[in-house]
Each structure stands twice: as C-alpha cells, then as structure tokens.
Amino acid sequence: MGKYTLPKLPYAYDALEPHIDARTMEIHHTKHHQAYTDKLNAALEKCSPEIQNKDILDILSDLSQVPDDVRGAINFNGGGFDNHRLFWNNMKANGGGEPGGAVADAINTSFGSFADFKEKFSSTTAVFQGSGWGWLVYNSSSGKVEYKSMPNQTSPRTEGLIPLLGCDVWEHAYYLKYQNKRPDYITAWWHIVNWDEVDSRLSKAK
Ligand code: MN
Questions:
Q1: Å from CA of 176 to ligand 1 middle
Q2: What is the pTM of this model?
Q3: pLDDT at site 1
Q4: Cα-to-centroid distance, 120 and ligand 1 (Å)
Q5: Domains in the chain, please, with CATH?
Q6: Taking a C-beta distance cutoff of 8 angstroms, is the pair 153, 76 a contact?
Q7: Is the bond preceding residue 18 a cis peptide, omega within 30 degrees?
Q8: What is the pLDDT of residue 2?
Q9: CA gap 29, 116 in Å, rounded
C-alpha cells in the first residue's frame, strides 16, 4: 500500500452527462488517475524518508529536492495525481454560468471581463499542442489570477503558481465522445465548471 490512494469521485460517473459521458469518466478515474497514483507511490519509494514524509504539494513546489533519477517521474505522476483530484472537484452537475464575488472580481481585474477570460482560456487551451492542461492560477507574487497552459502533467505548482481551475485536454479526457474535436469538448466543459470550488481555492490561496 503506497502513501497515496485514488480519491473517490464526488459524484457518479454519469453525473456530468451529456457534457462528459460516463464511460470516459470511469476510464479516466479508474485507469488514468489510478495509474498516476500508483506510479507516484512507486517513485516515492525510491526517495528518502524525509521526502516521503512531505506532502506531494510541497514536493511539487520544489522538485530540486528529489533525486535526479525520479524527478521526471514525480513531476509527471505527482502532477497527474494532484491535477486530477483538482479536476474532479472543479466540475459538478448543473455547474457553469458565471462566478460571482471574489472570483469575478479577480477575473475582471486580470482579463477585463468574464467573456474575455473565457475566450482566452478556451482559444489558448484548444490550440495547445499535444497533451496538457489549461489553468486559471493564482500568482501570489502579483496577487492576481492568470491563465497558464502546462504540458503533459506538469503542475502549475512547479512554477510557484496555485491552481484554481483546470481543464484536462489530454485526448483520454474527451476522445470517446468528441474524437478530435477538442474545442467542442471545451465548450461543453464550461457547463459543468464548479465555481464554488474555484472560489474556495482562491480564498485559501490568498
Ligand atoms: Mn486526465
């Protein structure tokens, strides 16, 4: 038994239908997220007890502290483990719409308007080459939110940024229903965004 276990989904596999189909959710959770979890545990077993006792978020924020021969594996699988547990929680049935309160204020300050933010997030994430994620992040240096694309499973935390909302655009996230049409998947995904979760993460980040 490794240090980390696959977290339960906060809803049923079919809860996000029709935007994300149940079969995609089940494979994504039980196969892909499970594999990142297992491989993170395997990589941590090659580290010192001092590293093993640290939280994965502290490890991701400074990968120079892990041995050279497992750094790539921890970047990939530790990022994959954390990115997906964020991802499940930043979606919900009957989500979407526009955020209010502090999230709306932060988005308006950084992007001008919610519409401008949504357009930048969608268009940039849609054309990102290869596998990766589009993120709304909090930059504690500037005190502002930003858009950030990250390749593969690399966490925004590796660049000192705090992830608030992530859209997984690996093909495994959408291929069964949307095939090559990543923009259609992103358009549908906005309908299930859980803005309450983003609000909660932003207040913790500050
Ligand atoms: Mn994924």
A1: 13
A2: 0.97
A3: 60
A4: 21
A5: 22-89 (1.10.287.990), 101-205 (3.55.40.20)
A6: yes
A7: yes
A8: 81
A9: 31
